[in-house]
Predict the 3D structure of the following.
Amino acid sequence: MKYRREHRFDKFIVPSAQKNNVSPALVKAIIWQESRFKPNARGGAGEIGLMQIRSPAAHEWAAAEKISPFAHEQIFDPAQNIAAGTWYIGKLSRRYLHTDNPLVYGLADYNAGRGHVLRWNKGAAATNSTAFLEQMTFPGTRKYIVNVLERMEHYESEFADIVAARR
């Protein structure tokens, strides 16, 4: 059962990751962390679906993709949720290309929001992800990042052929 649950969304993960130039292992790791592969998951701050997308991010994605009309509830659809979440983590990570590990900053932004990232990335932490993690005042966000990165490593072998083909 666990195998099926963890692989049933790969058919949406792979094309979304390729379209947004994001690692499919990263997308799958975020889904694991956010919802444990439950498409009807709801969060306490209005996040919904597999990747726990909030309404502003969902509407931003829909506008970028020219999807109209659009309602946040459409994000319960796994294909749309993964498309929106993958687009969003890609966008967030690209904000931090000047850093040694844009993914750490992008995941912090995804989890805690841009305002907190801007508060934490002062001094050496502006470009050094280790200093950034040390300066972070939300232990839950630090743990979120570590968990996602570890789970991403776990999933990388599943997508090794896809990643190799992109090189």
Summary: The radius of gyration is 15 Å. DSSP finds ten helices and no strands in the chain. The CA atoms of residues 17 and 23 lie 6 Å apart.
